[in-house]
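Hey team,

Sharing the V-ATPase proteolipid subunit C-like domain-containing protein run so nobody has to redo it. Sequence (100 residues) first:
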Amino acid sequence: MSMTAANTSSCIRDPKMAAGLCCGISCLAAGGTIGVIGDAGVQGFGLRASGGKRAWSSEGGDGDGDVGMGGNSEAANADAANKLYVGLLIMLIFSEALAL
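Structure output:
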């Protein structure tokens, strides 16, 4: 029995169409989630790793942006950047699992 447009009823076509739409829209939403998390994570990781200084704001000034951070601010920034990176990866893994 071949399935052509002439002998296929709407009882067979409609559930398949709905299943395809559900899978497609959920994957589209998961892809958007991955994009948003990735963009925010890259921006946050770059800002955290640079010590909270933006590249365009480092042109002038005296460079004491780490007021109150203590003497070990580079190690604290690296540790915080690593925690942010691990959190980013975990969120990306779960949003990819959502797509499946």
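DSSP finds two helices and no strands in the chain.

Ping me if you want the raw files.
A.
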